[in-house]
Design a protein that fits this description.
This protein has 489 residues and is an alpha/beta fold. The chain folds into two domains: 260 residues, Aspartate Aminotransferase, domain 2 (3-Layer(aba) Sandwich); 127 residues, Aspartate Aminotransferase, domain 1 (Alpha-Beta Complex). The chain has 17 helices and eleven strands. Strands 1-7-6-5-4-2-3 form a seven-stranded mixed sheet, sandwiched between helices. Strands 8-9-11-10 form a four-stranded antiparallel sheet. It starts with a helix and ends with a helix. The protein binds pyridoxal-5'-phosphate (PLP).
Amino acid sequence: MNDLLFSQFIGPKGENISLLQTFIEKILSEQKTWRADYSPEDISLYKKTEYNNTKLIEEFEKFLERSKKHFPFFHPRYAAQMAKDPSIPTILGYLTFMLSNPNNHAYEGGPVTTEMEMEVVELLLKMVGYKTGWGHLTSGGSLANMEALWAARDFYNKGTVYFSEVSHYSWKRICKILNIDSFKEISVDKNFRMNCDRLEDELKKNEAMMVMANLGSTGTGSVDDIEAILELKKKYQFHLHIDAAYGGFFRSILLDENYNQSLQKTPLSGHVEKQLLLLSESDSITIDPHKQGSVSYGAGAVLYKNEELRDIILNTAPYTYHKLDKPNIGMFSLEGSRSGATAAACYLTYKVIPPNNTGIGELLSHTIVASQKFYQMIEQSENYDNLNFPDLDINCFFRKSNKKNISEVNELTLAIYSVLSVETENPEFMLSKFVLAPEIAKTVLPEYENPKGESLITLRAVFMKHWYTMNDFYYLKKLIDVLELKAKH
Ligand SMILES: Cc1ncc(COP(=O)(O)O)c(C=O)c1O
């Protein structure tokens, strides 16, 4: 374990918070000096600054109390959703610029943070292996997906959009918003990866505009067979978009400090390694710093290999984009105002924790190791079964049913969910559910009876925090103990 790397986070018990405190003091004093020194001949408008500001004091106290009702996303006991502690550089980068509130829509709204954003994008392009291309940050993965599909629709002007039935819900919604009637969901295999035979059946029937492959599906973190999809691309020609909102940063595990492929052994499976390397062969990518990139929310990204897709969505306005020799990101993006502070947060984070195997990659190796360890623990359990082997770091599992009956699995699994989730006050651990439609359940668990045609309910643990390997998998062992105990009640 790299102690210095791990200390770039506040820590589940606030272990490193004094470092943050020192830097926050510095940010505030710099801000004060900047304001005081700007145009020094100007007079101060404030005659007095020491007020008895009881309203603020009272409201802030109440506000702090209220803030504690939020779930402890920072803690390893919270494994329900894709939530983790932002890194210390993220907090510092964000706070520094939030105080002056830049807007990266246009260069004039945030000259420094726009340049930072472009540097972050250069780094992301390097990390995904694009030699040419362009991109920008977005407020999240859904917006990145939407912009990519909008650009593709207007560039190609015809054809069907294909994606697997376990894709993020934004895809269907975006097709509706963009008036794309011709979209088709493709069934998945036992590992929740797009069934490429079914995809080819469809490609034979209808000309494709785009195939969207998942590199880290939302439910199980599954990684589609990009290698097979690229073979189909040669035959049927289509735009390949990869939704790597969740999984894209795992490519950093494979890269050395110069962003070349490292020879170091990794904990990734052969399948995942291969698909991560092939990310560079796609035409566009969604990749979210606010998921596995250690940055706080508000940081998605869309990357395009072909810069022509940028010009197709060009937008101008008479009142902005004045500095045309500079990057005006809003001219080529779906969104208007976007926080420059978020770009600064990404910038500082990747200066300190680079997206290669010395930084983000090392952190993510731990999440993979933890997830595989937990898979083995469930394999050894008398009370639980794994749904599938995790491609990344999301584990789905369910209560064993000796009768091999889905109704029984659901009843037993829901009893556990009700005590280890948001459904109860102060649970010992927080997990989420992954619910599979009956047809998918039949593919994944063909030996199970399902006379009532029910959806299958499984427990879902997202091990995206790098702390699960620490102290000999301390929190994973605790989680297993709790799960076994609850199964006996
Ligand atoms: C694979 C995938 N794509 C897209 C999204 C949407 O991202 P966002 O919630 O940032 O809009 C998610 C969110 O979980 C996701 O898992």
